[in-house]
Amino acid sequence: MRHARTYPGKVSRRPAGVALGTVMAAILAMTVGASAGWAESAPPDDADTAITAEAQNAAEAAEAVTETATTESTDEAGEEAADQAQESVTPLPTEESDESEESGGAEESTTPADSEESESTGEDAEQSHEAEESHEAVAAESEQSTEVEGGEGAEEADESEESTDEASAEDGTADEGAEQDVAVASAEESVQLTERDVEVIQDVGGGAATECADIGFDFGVKLDTGAAGSYTYYGSGPWEPDGIDIALSVTIADSHTFSFMADPAVGAILVKAGQGSQQLAGGTAGFREIGGQQAISHLTFCYNEPEEELTVTQTLETTFDREHFWSIDKWADPESLTLYPFAEAGPTSGTIDWTVDVGYEGHEDSGHVVSGTISIENTGDTTAAFDGTHVLETSEGNILPDLDCVPPVPILDPGGTFTCTYSHPVDSAVSGQSVLEIVTSENSYAADPAPITWGDPDSEVNATIDVTDVSDLNGLVNESFTAPNGGTITYDWDFAWSEFGLDACGAYSYDNAATITQTEQSADESVTVEVVCLETTPVVPTLTPGICTDGVLVHPTLALAETDGIEYAVDSEGPYAGGQTVGIMASLTEGYVWGEVGSEWTIVDDLTVTTDVTLEEVPCIPTLPEPPSVDDGDCEDGAGVPPSLTLGETAGITYSVDPSEPYEPGQTVTVTATLAEGYSWGEPAAMTLAPAAATAGGRSVPARVPTEHAVSDTEAQPVGWPEEWTYVSPTEATFEVTFEDPECPQTQPPQVAASPQLPSTGTPSLDLAALTLATLAGGLLLASVARRRRTTIG
């Protein structure tokens, strides 16, 4: 999975890339012999320098890889890679005819080596010797063929000793060519090498961020050394800046070549060499070489911010089932025939027409399901964590169906696909659309709305039905009907009295049934053909239950039926009470016989049947009115307080007063009590008078307590009727109240007559005057109290 990167100013995590350098070194060792073929050719003017550099690169890379593999001795892969590297850099022999020319090139190649020695750890004499030998081999091969594959440099030593002219003439044996192709393909596939793209640019200087920004990249990291060796970001080597969340391993093979492995991919590589810089192609891995004579000073790996892009699509489909509904009815016209032995009494023959009616009642769709697939593909170059909303916007409201997603965690690496499916039942063929929006920390992505459309049902029930009609008279009839068309089945039958005769008087029933096979719906019809012997059937009387209305109980009633050939009688006459059972007797008159007698009747003999009926009633609820509470008013500070009246509260009674307040002393008002439906005047339970309840500043009538149960008397006042109330009707009673005057007294100020001057007796005259005033005030107070009175009405 691609790493999520953190840039300066953000929290970072260190990549697990320490071992990456060792692995890369091993891979490089396997492929270093082919470096001349993978690297781009130098410009024509620098051909000798480039070829010399290629040879020197091979030798130096082999030694660097060997050292790296030795350091990582615990890694078996590194040890094997080092061994392979030693074998792969065996110098290639050259023809003597080319030695003089190549020697000149070798001498020129010492300049980059000297430069590298001044900026790095340096190379020993043995390395230089190996570089010269390798350079001569590469120079010879480059003159012989411009199409030599990179893998040819890694051939066995004995194969390299063959004549170059012979190799050019025969173009190699078939076996050797196949072996070379496999070696080259394997090496290229393992390190994902791309040819370097060299562009010499002016050295921009500064840190990695500045250098990368000047060539159009977002950020970068710098390996601030050109010394041979393996370096891992966050592992070994002088790197800047810190805190970039990448995985990067670099192996500098010599002063002009290096290899790398990176995750994410590098956008470009800036190589500082001398006063200028060279821009090389990036990638996820590769072998790179710089041109010119200046040695590598440092490497800057530039990156672009990864671009996030999600492609969001959705599909939607609907399914439902359809059930067709049918009705079936059957009737006969007429439903019965009465046949008489002679025309004077009635018809002697008749025809009955049967009809089976099959109706299409429409269909009902059910099992509506909206299903869909959501696909989210990461078409960008960075790992994306996302969330989103999926809503079915329907005419029944918004629906959030459950999603079944793979993978279960909404995180996608580049190229990955996240798929969700759903299947949600709905109540009907809703209209609407599926709306999908995916949101990341940077962007939002909306899929095209998927409309909810309904086509034909996936399955149909009872689209075609079979109707079977079975008749006592007509036998078996079958017919099919297909939605949406119903239809009818008809047939008729003739009857005549003569077919029965005098010995067959009575009623004959002919049954007929039609059935829909698939639904098991059926319709029955029976016709009756009566061969008349003047039969008759008793009828139960009509009962009317008793009810309480307008304060009076209306008793239940019974009305006997009127039937030809039958006389009815009751065992008791009305009026009837609720719950009373009355016996009914039905007797045949002359010339009639019993026809079909219902189960509610009991056959006593050939002429008599009886039945019992029970009458019902809803009794009245007895109640009596309660008197109001009266306050005649009061005197306060010589001023009168107006009288007041409080109405009682009694179940089944509504109280009203006329006129309404405010009231005046001496005024007479009328309180009316009106019964509610279902109530009647009467004492619900025995009552006695209770002491009047005192009211603040007024008087009240006595309350009642139970004494015995009383029955209403509708002819006069009910038993227990309160005397202070006037019985007006079965639903109304009145009560009159006259407010009394409290007669507030008029207060006169006391008058004190002047008295002659008396001789002083030793008692001050002021004390006598005060005593006189106190006596007068007390008398007035007693008079006022005496004038106040409270009266109990009733």
TrEMBL record:
Keyword set includes Signal: yes
Composition bias type Low complexity, residue spans: 56-72
Keyword field: Cell wall, Membrane, Peptidoglycan-anchor, Secreted, Signal, Transmembrane, Transmembrane helix
Organism classification: Bacteria, Bacillati, Actinomycetota, Actinomycetes, Micrococcales
Residue stretches spanning the membrane: 768-786
Biased composition (Acidic residues): 73-82, 95-105, 114-125, 144-179
The Gram-positive cocci surface proteins LPxTG domain, residue ranges: 754-789
Name of this chain's protein: Gram-positive cocci surface proteins LPxTG domain-containing protein
Keyword match Methyltransferase: no
Stretches for region Disordered: 56-191, 741-760
Entries under InterPro entries matching the protein: LPXTG_anchor
Basic and acidic residues: bias regions: 126-138
